[in-house]
Amino acid sequence: MTTTSLIVIGLLQALLILMLAPLFSGFSRVMRAKMHSRRGPSIYQNYRDLAKLMKRQEVVSEQASWVFQATPFITMVCMLLVALIVPIFTVESPFRWVGDLILVIYLFALSRFFFSLSGLATGSTFGGIGARREQLLSVLIEPVMLLVLFVMALLAGSTNLGTISTKIASGEVPFYTSVWLGMLAFAFASFVEMGKLPFDLAEAEQELQEGPLTEFSGRSLAMLKWGLYMRQMVVVALFLAVFLPFGSMTTLSIPAILLAVVVFLLKVVLFYFIVGILENAMARVRFMKASAVTWAALGAAILSFVFYLANV
Amino acid sequence: MDAIQILLLSVLVFGVGAVASLLLNGSSRTARYVSGIAGMLGSVMGLLAAILAIINKPATLELLIPLPFGHFYLQMDGLSTLMVGMIAVLGFVASLYSISYLEQYEKRSLGVMGFFTNLFIAMMLLVVTVANAFYFLVFWEMMTLASYFLVIFESEKKEAIRAGYLYMLVAHAGGALIMVSFFLFYAISGSFDFAAFRQAQLSPALRNVIFLLAFLGFGAKAGMVPLHIWMPDTYSAAPSHVSALMSSVMKKTAIYGILRVCVYLLGASVLWWGLLVLFFGAISAVLGVLFALAERDLKRMLAYSSVENVGIILLGIGTGMIGLATQQAVVASLGFLAALYHALNHSFFKGLLFLGTGAVDYRLHTRDLNEMGGLARRMPWTGLAFLTGALAVAAIPPLNGFVSEWFTYQAFFNLSRDPNFAVRIFAPLCAVLLALAGALAAMLYIKAYGGAFTGPPRSQPASQAQEVPGTMITSMFILVAGCLALGLGAPLVAPYLMQVAASLPGATSMPVASGVWVYPANINQAILSTPLVAILLVGLLTVPLVVLAIYGGFKAGKRTVVDPWACGYGYSPSMSVSASSFDQPIKATFGSLYALRPMIQKPLDATAAWSKRFREAIVRSEPVLESWITRPTAWVVNYLGKHIQALQMGDIRLYCLYIILTLAVLLIVVFK
Q1: What number of other Cβ atoms are within 10 A of residue B108's Cβ?
Q2: Is residue B226 assigned to a domain?
Q3: What span, in angstroms and rounded, lies between the C-alpha atoms of A194 and A191?
Q4: Which of B18, B41, B203, B297 is the most buried (most CB within 10 A)?
């Protein structure tokens, strides 16, 4: 594919993530309500919430510095850039000339850096506690993600996400045991990254608040929430790109791109569906116990690496 | 003039500045300006020398000093030039910074301070350029001594004396190891010249011994775990511009030593050497940052974080050494490139962070994070500079820390395809540990910046702080610019550093950049463009702005005079999450690793206690020695003196006679 068409595809990807992220988040809200036997909100409720928040006056704590104000923008920008790099519609990385999987992992780190900082920035108790929770999870999860992706990169012979995607899709890298194990570990890591139970309760408005979101209001809250919805979807897209790139476009044509979009959306729905079931079937664990669970993911990642070494 | 001559001139300027400021000790104010300006001048010339050496080819100079230990031989090859440039930039910044920063010490003898600071920088310049082991050791010792006196500058403080003592102890233990390794070289080669060392025919066993001695000796100075324990105390005792110099460049002289001796002189031909370096690097990277997280003294945090960064540099060096040993040119070159890049980056961002800490200390007179808070509003420039440093050290793209860690990952990636099974296991695990260290570092610097610069002020001085003087801000922003340039300019910096890496014997130059991209020798393996990342991050900002514009922009306005939400109760700053509670989950999760800390501390404390007892024993044995040796000697000297006095009559004619007699004797001796 030519660079121009890849750029166009990349922009389309970012646009799709931007527009549809609230929808999928709404989908998990609906699922949650159904499993609780509630009627629940409409699937479009998130859009209405965002539109409403945008028009509200912003109330900012006296202590807040510019870091606090900048966070919603930085979060959204980082997720847009990731959406440009991750192969979503095609098996190639549309903006592969910007960076590889290491850049993607560290772009997540960039958004988290400011997200956590914004929690501390206001001097709010809940924000601070949320910030440190966010950081502990990232400390526990980032090495898992990196090891899994590293093993996949070794199998594909490149840290370029597009190459990994291409080789998995074409069967050049078959589903070894190590790929299965890596998939398991990475699925777990994505689950945590999405901010789901048992580690996080993104909708706990009353008890622990929403971590660093506590002090945001008005359009800042809207932008930040939107950014976080995008983060969930981008994480899913990254998982799909590395492990299930089937159905993505390999040659450029209009039907192929339409097919790829549809297939991608179906995969995302399926992923959100499974995540929804898991999330709602699960009890919350104490946050400090998180490491007891994440060690299992690290274990799976290391096993995947061991199987890679043994070539099975 | 060629590079070396300018370098000598720069050392001379430092020397003159040192002596002048010592002479002006009576007037602290003048001494402060003189030593600062001399330091800046000397640094500019040092930088000039480095630039000249880069443009022209490597330069050498031999001074004939009639000493039996060999030639005084200065040499600026690729590695030395890089180090000279690094020292010069940091020397300039620290000197500029010191002019205002030292104002708070006005009542002390700043002339002495200026003397040792200039001497310290000059000695570092000589250490990295001298190509003779004897002079290397001399300059190395002088560098250690100068920095020692800077550490105990506030000598009425008990911690400073204790820190200085510990520093001396470890530095000299390390120095002794280096000395032994050089003497072993000398025993075989018969000369102290590095050139002769390279030719020496060493038996494999001896090579191993020399490697271990040099690695541990330089490792102690670099502060790798478990030899790091002197660093937190030392850095927090020293004035900030000195800790900046110690952390960002003195440490690098130790890295330089490892590269010079273990790679350049010994050739790194043994596989387990590289594995050992890799092992120490991995441990240092993770434990350093974990220990840093448990601190709330900003300078001690930065010191432990330096342990982490030395670990990352060692990871690169270890990878490079394995590459050399297994003759994989790509691995070797990438490993050394990553190590050099990270060393260069670290000197910029860590220097910046230490200067930022100094700026806070300058206004608040504390380094305790729990006494700070909200400083970004009162010291906006310092805050911005510190944040840039924090982002860089946390390896956030597109800043410089990210680029060097990216190269480190790529070096690991190449190493993971090594035919040797042991190496294949090691490499990805090191990558995981690097990722862990990276995530912990992000948390550490969120804690540091968040605790000091955001949130409510947690003490009286913090709520009344003011921005620091312009010279201090300027010096910090020089380093900010450096961090940005090294990050965004990666496609320009990487090829230069590759040249330096390739100048090490055994490594070959690989293509690592073209256009706005960098890549690890093979363009299909990976590609990164920090300038494009920066452009895209800024460009994509239009998306949220357009979204905002669609929804009515900033019409709704905002209200800023409210307290944070506190469940309806009145808010008080003590409700905010303090720096010391921020890391509590990590302490709980990694509790077992923190248990290592006393274990590492124990042997050194034991050594310190032992050496203290030794010293006390010497004091106790003094009377014995006195009655048996000192008194009789003194008596003999007195006795002789009285009789020799007879010669000294004070008569000028008699003295003339003595002179003539001496001449006569000499003539007889010569012509016989």
Answers
A1: 15
A2: no
A3: 5
A4: B18
**Could you tell me which residue, B441 or B67, shows the higher pLDDT?**
B441
Token reading at B162: 């204790």
Per-residue H/E/C for A222-246: HHHHHHHHHHHHHHHHHHHHHHCCC
Q: Is residue B352 part of a domain?
A: yes
Under 8 Å between Cβ of B288 and B308: yes
Domain that holds residue B326: 268-503
**Residue percentage of chain A with pLDDT more than 70:** 94
* Residues 6+ away with beta carbon under 8 Å from B233: B159, B162, B163, B166, B167, B300
pLDDT digits over A104-116, tens only?
999 999 999 999 9
Query: Does B483 lie in the same domain as B607?
Result: no
What is the span of the domain harbouring residue A252? 3-309
Total-model pTM = 0.90
CA B43 to chain centre: 16
A234 touches chain B (CB under 8 A): no
Q: Which of A140, A76, A185, A80 is nearest to B443 (CA)?
A: A140
Domain count for chain A, please give it. 1
Q: What is the token pair recorded at B335?
A: 């490993």
Dump pLDDT digits (tens) for B519-559.
998 888 899 999 999 999 999 999 999 988 888 777 767 77
Residue of A nearest to B408 (CA): A102
* Domain limit, last residue, from B447, B470, B503: B503
Within 10 A of B613 (CB to CB), how many other CB atoms are there? 10
One domain for residues B333 and B457:
yes
Cβ atoms of A104 and A165 within 8 Å: the answer is no
Residues of B in contact with A223 (CB under 8 A): 544, 547-548
Q: What are B592-633's pLDDT values in tens digits?
A: 778 777 777 777 677 777 777 877 777 776 667 677 777 788
Residue B64 pLDDT: 62
Q: Are residues B606 and B488 in the same domain?
A: no
Is the residue at B616 inside a domain?
A: yes
pLDDT of residue A200: 57
ipTM: 0.94
Best to test chain A binding among B408, B514, B577 (most A CBs inside 10 Å): B577
B310 pLDDT higher than 60? yes
Length of chain A in residues, anyone?
312
Last residue of a domain, one of B471, B503, B535: B503
Candidates A3, A19, A56, A102, partner chain B, best to mutate (most B CBs within 10 A): A102
Specify the pLDDT at position B65: 65
